[in-house]
Each structure stands twice: as structure tokens, then as C-alpha cells.
Amino acid sequence: MLELRPNCECCDKDLPPDSSEAAICTFECTFCADCAADVLGGVCPNCGGELVRRPVRPAAKLAKYPASTKRVLKAEGCRPIKAA
Predict the structure, then answer these.
(1) Tell me: the pLDDT tens digits for 22-69?
(2) Looking at the domain that runs over 1-58, which CATH code has it been given?
């Protein structure tokens, strides 16, 4: 079951469970679409995995399987990708 973390690890933008702006890796590291694309280039800075759009949990299932409330934030922020 995905945690559905509530924020972007880079910029701390709120990402509610129904957000289509959330991106995750296979370890569920969570970033907003802007940071995932523009800052990270689609690559998780924690594990090096691919960042993809996080699925939206149906509202009817959120009551039984609520989203996480634990905020994860990189204290140093995220470093921009290096130009090739």
C-alpha cells in the first residue's frame, strides 16, 4: 500500500492524496511535478530511480486506507540536475 506522502521532499509543496502533481520512485520518495521534472530531471535524488506520476487512491478507499501525514523534507533541498 502506497504511503501517499503529503508533501514534496524538495520544496515542501502540499501534495494531497488526490493530487495529480505528485511524482514518486519505487521507494515512495515523493516530489511535486515541477521539482521532479525541472530540478531532478525525472530521477530520484535519494535512490537514482525513475520518478513517475503517483496514482490517485479512490476517495472511497481513503477512509479505510488513509494517506500518510508524515512530512519528509530534505533539509538541504534538492540540487538541480547537471547539464550534459
Answers:
(1) 999 999 999 999 999 999 999 999 999 999 999 999 999 999 999 999
(2) 3.30.40
